[in-house]
């Protein structure tokens, strides 16, 4: 059957000019039984459009694992390492993940109690809430009136030892009904975004780069971020910003000596900007919560020094400066008109280019609002590529 690509239905809040390439609904093929030719078309579409939606899908965990693995045939273990990081008691990811026993690379996530599910007699799920992660919280009264927040903008990645997954597949099995909510940014801007209950929100890393002023683009293509060892354990005692875009600098991170055993060679240092393997476009891909240091290269020969940030390069280790520098570059891209909040329907399958977008859990459910999703991503067989020499010369 011919593959058909249809633009995502955008909410009124979104600026359509910024979503011309982002997101396509795929029609005419079954994602559980793709032929090699169909898969190549899907892969091509994913790198071009960064998020793909299939509606009314019936997909076993085995099929979901096979589809996810097809993007990187040498990858095998779950993106967080067969749940090792997630199961470390101190990790902030610990409560969010339940593994499907038959296919441990597929996780059951959601809310409420799910019974007799794919070999799990009973699974108690909890939708993560900003109230346990942000430094401040929406008042219970406002929450009752439907006000909420972005939980945590991120890339799906262990950020230590393992390479960031290329794709994440999210399959909505049980979707509770409920009133829409309003995300409040609470950062002094007055920004708000109406969202469907329990949306997953996405922003494009390409747009994040494209909308930066020239001096920030120059800094972005010259900078690498160094993540903390076991970043989810390291950040566990700390609190997030009200936008969910990074951590408040209060000095609460676990000292490196108190982390589980780690080795310097396994610490991840990634370029700020990742090159899309399908289109060659540059995507600003930083998981702000886990970053510890910035390594800035000097301007390349012949670049204009006037107005340049860190023209001679820098190694920034002051956590507050590191975070403020990243926040200034990332915050513009999460403004309400640049966010795609997916309105989940039962049997939706969303594939997203995990190396090309940032995403976040949103909102809050009551315990009786049962939600069940299957999520799969696999630690990649390689690290992401940064900008080419030509890219650096062009943008620095
Ligand atoms: Fe995620």
TrEMBL record:
GO MF term (any one): metal ion binding
Protein's UniProt keywords contain Iron: yes
Pfam families (UniProt xref): TauD
Domain of life: Eukaryota
The TauD/TfdA-like domain, residue ranges: 22-376
InterPro entries given in the database record: TauD-like_sf (IPR042098), TauD/TfdA-like (IPR003819), TfdA_dioxygenase (IPR051178)
Cofactor annotation: Fe(2+)
Disordered: region residues: 70-91
Keywords: Dioxygenase, Iron, Metal-binding, Oxidoreductase
Gene3D superfamilies: Clavaminate synthase-like
Feature: compositional bias, Polar residues: 74-90
Family, similarity comment: Belongs to the TfdA dioxygenase family.
Protein name per the record: TauD/TfdA-like domain-containing protein
Organism: Laccaria amethystina LaAM-08-1
Lineage, broadest ranks: Eukaryota, Fungi, Dikarya, Basidiomycota, Agaricomycotina
């Amino acid at each position: 059957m011919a593959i058909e690509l249809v633009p995502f239905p955008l909410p009124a809040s979104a600026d359509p000019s910024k979503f011309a390439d982002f997101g396509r609904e795929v029609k005419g093929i079954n994602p559980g039984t793709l032929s090699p030719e169909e898969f190549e078309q899907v892969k091509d579409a994913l790198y071009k459009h960064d998020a793909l939606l299939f509606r009314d899908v019936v997909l076993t965990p085995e099929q979901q694992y096979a589809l996810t693995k097809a993007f990187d045939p040498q990858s095998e273990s779950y993106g967080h390492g067969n749940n090792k990081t997630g199961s470390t008691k101190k990790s902030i990811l610990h409560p969010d993940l339940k593994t499907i026993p038959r296919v441990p690379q597929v996780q059951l996530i959601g809310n409420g109690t799910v019974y007799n599910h794919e070999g799990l007699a009973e699974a108690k799920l909890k939708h993560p809430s900003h109230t346990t992660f942000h430094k401040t919280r929406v008042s219970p009264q406002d929450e009752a009136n439907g006000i909420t927040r972005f939980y945590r903008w991120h890339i799906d990645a262990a950020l230590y030892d393992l390479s960031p997954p290329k794709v994440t597949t999210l399959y909505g099995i049980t979707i509770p009904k409920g009133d829409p909510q309003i995300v409040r940014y609470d950062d002094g801007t007055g920004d708000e975004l109406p969202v469907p209950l329990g949306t997953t929100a996405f922003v494009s890393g390409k747009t994040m780069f494209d909308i930066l002023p020239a001096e920030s683009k120059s800094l972005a293509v010259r900078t690498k971020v160094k993540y903390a060892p076991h970043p989810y354990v390291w950040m566990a005692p700390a609190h997030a910003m009200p936008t969910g875009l990074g951590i408040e600098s209060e000095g609460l991170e676990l000292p490196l000596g108190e982390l589980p055993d780690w080795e310097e060679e396994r610490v991840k240092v990634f370029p700020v900007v990742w090159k899309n393997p399908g289109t060659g476009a540059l995507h600003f891909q930083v998981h702000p919560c886990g970053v510890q240091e910035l390594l800035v290269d000097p301007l390349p020969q012949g670049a204009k020094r006037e107005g340049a940030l860190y023209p001679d390069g820098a190694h920034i280790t002051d956590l507050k400066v590191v975070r403020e520098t990243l926040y200034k570059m990332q915050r513009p891209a999460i403004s309400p008109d640049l966010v795609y909040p997916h309105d989940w329907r039962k049997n939706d399958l969303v594939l997203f280019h995990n190396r090309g977008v940032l995403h976040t859990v949103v909102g809050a459910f009551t315990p009786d609002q049962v939600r069940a999703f299957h999520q799969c991503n696999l630690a990649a067989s390689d690290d992401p590529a940064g900008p080419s020499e030509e890219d650096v010369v062009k943008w620095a």
